[in-house]
């Protein structure tokens, strides 16, 4: 199990959370491959922590579907398939729509303006071909809306699903287009009109649009 030695460790966090964040990052970007067996002793040495927080972190990752734990056998990174996009995006879209509906009653014009600036950055990233930066900006756009909704249950579930989305990106399942920035702007205009139903509808479409793009890609390859 090769482990990078040139990563930067976050500060001011518990050993368990630091281990969780780093292992998750390695799973998302493919450093730790699907079906790879994880050695908690090696991970502990690499991260400079004891094996206890590593085991706790792996239990969290198991609960979220990133690893599988087999007592007496070991822990494996879960497999990932391109078609998983069709399983992950519908619940993410539903939760994002709910968060957007709640946020529509709370958001102020200053926050809308800051989201508009963020969307402009997103549009530029997509236009210039920086798709990973675009994906991160897209996630930030929607995450800020979730933060405004201020519901910890929505936030925690969205965060987990979004991590799976990032993983799918590295496995070529997620495609970004300039149309997404137009949909972001439509959400912001619905916010300005205090039209929570329309804002929620648009948010769900924006998230699940990648499913249609996935099927278009599959059809073009047949």
CATH architecture of the largest domain: Up-down Bundle
CATH superfamily of the largest domain: GntR ligand-binding domain-like
- Rounded to the nearest angstrom, the radius of gyration is 19 Å
Total beta strand runs: 3
| CATH topology title of the largest domain | Four Helix Bundle (Hemerythrin (Met), subunit A)
Series of secondary-structure elements, N-terminal to C-terminal: HEHHEEHHHHHH
The proportion of residues forming helix, as a percent range, comes to 55-70%
User: In order across it, which strands form the biggest sheet?
Assistant: 1-3-2
Q: DSSP strand (E) fraction?
A: under 5%
Summarize the structure in words.
The protein is mainly alpha-helical and 222 residues long. It folds into two domains: 15-77, Arc Repressor Mutant, subunit A, CATH 1.10.10.10; 82-221, Up-down Bundle (Four Helix Bundle (Hemerythrin (Met), subunit A)), CATH 1.20.120.530. It has helices at 15-28, 40-47, 51-63, 85-103, 109-127, 131-149, 152-170, 179-192, 196-221, and strands at 37-38, 67-70, 74-77. A hairpin with a 3-residue loop joins β2 and β3 (74-77). The two termini are 36 Å apart. The mean pLDDT is 91.
What is the fold's blueprint, element by element?
Blueprint: H1 15-28, E1 37-38, H2 40-47, H3 51-63, E2 67-70, E3 74-77, H4 85-103, H5 109-127, H6 131-149, H7 152-170, H8 179-192, H9 196-221
Antiparallel strand pairs: 1-3, 2-3
Helix pairs in contact: 1-3, 2-3, 4-6, 4-7, 4-9, 5-6, 5-8, 6-7, 8-9
